[in-house]
Amino acid sequence: MTNKKSSITTSASSIDNIYSLDGKVPVGKSIPFGLQHVLAMFVANIAPIMIVAGACGLTAQNTAALIQTAMIVAGIGTLVQLFSVWRLGARLPIVMGISFTFVSIFCYVGPRWGYEAVIGAVLVGGCIEGILGLFAKYWRGLVAPIVAACVVTAIGFSLLSVGANSFGGGNGAEDFGSLQNWILGTITLVCCLGFHIIAKGHVKQLSVLFGLVVGYIVAVFMGMVDFSALESVKVLSVPEFLPFKPVFNINAIISVMLIFLVSATETIGDTSAMTSTVLHREPTDKEISGALACDGFVSSVSALFGCMPITSFSQNVGLLAMTKVINRYTIATGAAIMIIAGLIPAVGAVLATLPEAVLGGCTIMMFGNIVLSGLQMIGNCGYTQRNITIAALSLSVGLGFTQVPEIFAIFPDIIRTVFAENCVAVVFLSAILLNLLLPEETDKTAQM
């Protein structure tokens, strides 16, 4: 009787179906829940674009156009994950967005070889990840949970300096570290923290957005917002195809390809976390394969329009776990909102005027959360002697050696380019090798 009743409920359009994966929900009632997912990831979706654009010296008009494209690509990627196209997509409530994982490497590649080299590397790397995703069942076992945990921790640590640079006004800013930037960044950070402490329930998810809005308003009154990019904005526009001609630099491709592998481990972790906490089961090989293939191939499509790679968003996985709203059609309304917003250039142009100090005040706490998420993942793997060894050595080598890049002086240029200042790549490679070399029998030792 219970199963029969459940099937009847999910076949009819009902608000109760928001807790069902496939049930239909009235569009009007599903919009607030879809919007909530958009708001939970909105800042994180545009922040990587703004950070990388600033590091690469792109104009405000370029940045606005990329933000516009980022929202459209995130919406399309989410729809592919929800409903799948061929073997692309997991058919799970996975929300996609521009990945923070690539920020540090793009801030390294872009200033050296140009943003065009970033686009060329994303085109190649996305296709390779997509192909690997289609055959994920053959190699999935190489990326053990402890490897993914170390990688996430390293990503968090690598982004702390990025957040600090934004807090100070942005790389190369003439007023870097000025009193104005300190005041603006601090106000934004305090607003984020205060809202998170005071707000209750689902509203807590909007703490970053609240800080961003308050910080932006304060920046306007401080005369720190440049509205020149709004002068020639169109009412409606579609992204330009190949706004940046791809440059295929082998050093950039190898560097970015390593981070695509890192991103793949994150997607596996996000998909596993979502199915275990919400659906109470492990993800199937088909779901993992579809999620990774979507990550890769849609990232390549993103590059064709000048944008950065996309991946699953961990904060939305947390939102799913908290609200239990997993309905694919409900979340699809959020994807539709992103696409519509991306077609209105004024949205991107306004967001492009956001001062770096405001962005830094918002992101510094977000990056700290990534560090803590990685540490929690390490704890969830269990403190066996083997896991401790993998985590301790890979993080020590990855974070330690890259703080002293001169230590790589004996290696060829291509090795120095990829690893000397890229702690995530070093941690990923070290953790993979240790996981393969350390005997499993070590796990039988007593936990500490």
* Poorly predicted residue ranges: 1-10
Q: Widest sheet: strand order?
A: 1-2
The overall pLDDT, averaged over residues, is: 85
User: What order do the SSEs take from the amino end to the carboxyl end, as H and E?
Assistant: HHHEHHHHHHHEHHHHHHH
Largest sheet: 2 strands, antiparallel
Percentage of residues assigned to helices: 55-70%
Give me the number of helical elements: 17
Based on CA atoms alone, the radius of gyration comes out at 21 Å
N-to-C CA distance: 49 Å
The structure class reads: mainly alpha
Give the overall shape.
globular
- The structural domain count equals 1
Strand content: under 5%
Let me know the number of strands: 2
Describe the SSE topology:
Elements: H1 2-11, H2 27-56, H3 60-83, E1 96-98, H4 103-113, H5 115-134, H6 145-167, H7 179-198, H8 207-221, H9 250-279, H10 285-304, E2 310-312, H11 314-323, H12 328-342, H13 345-352, H14 356-381, H15 385-401, H16 413-419, H17 423-437
Antiparallel strand pairs: 1-2
Helix pairs in contact: 2-3, 2-4, 2-12, 3-10, 3-12, 3-13, 4-5, 4-9, 5-9, 5-10, 6-9, 6-14, 6-15, 6-17, 7-8, 7-14, 8-14, 9-10, 9-11, 9-16, 15-17
